[in-house]
């Protein structure tokens, strides 16, 4: 049996498909600017404008400071506060765009998605949304590897460094 030299196409993962869609959407956003912005001239301000632009399509209710439901995780009635993009969605989007930028020939040193201004913006969005919902954001602590208990005490004998006090 002869081999044609080509393998069947591999279906991209959900992540890869989403990354490509996000990259194409961002590229279209830049083309629609007046004047259009080539990706090579894109900077963190364009990225911040894009994130703000996306807010109009958000589905997360973010109560404003004057709202009677500000700080309540589950408000009892509807209100006129705006819908925004959720922090987690924006954070994941930036991660995908950051990777796509470099996969499409961009340098890590000039990656606008890796800018400190983007990290600050995301932190502010996270804190603002947490306060508006009355739910403080707690950073997850890294898990320590468990130590074994021997006779009610921790057994550190399997540790890579051992001390002898004899």
Automatic annotation (TrEMBL):
InterPro entries: ALOG, ALOG_dom. Keywords: Developmental protein, DNA-binding, Nucleus, Transcription, Transcription regulation. Its main location: nucleus. Residues 157-166 have a biased composition (Low complexity). Residues 14-141 form the ALOG domain. Residues 133-166 are annotated as: Disordered. It is found in: Nucleus. Pfam families: ALOG_dom. Belongs to the plant homeotic and developmental regulators ALOG protein family. PANTHER family: PROTEIN G1-LIKE2, PROTEIN LIGHT-DEPENDENT SHORT HYPOCOTYLS 10. This is ALOG domain-containing protein. It comes from Brassica cretica.
């Amino acid at each position: 049996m002869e081999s044609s030299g080509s393998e069947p196409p591999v279906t991209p993962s959900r992540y890869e498909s989403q990354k490509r869609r996000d990259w194409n959407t961002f590229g279209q956003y830049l083309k629609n600017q007046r004047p259009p912005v080539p990706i090579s001239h894109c900077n963190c301000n364009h990225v911040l404008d894009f994130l703000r632009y996306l807010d109009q399509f958000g589905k997360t209710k973010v109560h404003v400071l004057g709202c009677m439901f500000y700080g309540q995780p589950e408000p009892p009635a509807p209100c006129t506060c705006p819908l925004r993009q959720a922090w987690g969605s924006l954070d994941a989007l930036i991660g995908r765009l950051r990777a796509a930028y470099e996969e499409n020939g961009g340098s890590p040193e000039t990656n606008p998605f890796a800018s400190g201004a983007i990290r600050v913006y995301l932190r502010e969005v996270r804190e603002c949304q947490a306060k508006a919902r009355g739910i403080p954001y707690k950073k997850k602590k890294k898990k320590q590897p468990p130590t074994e208990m021997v006779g009610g005490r921790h057994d550190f004998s399997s540790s890579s460094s051992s001390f002898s006090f004899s």
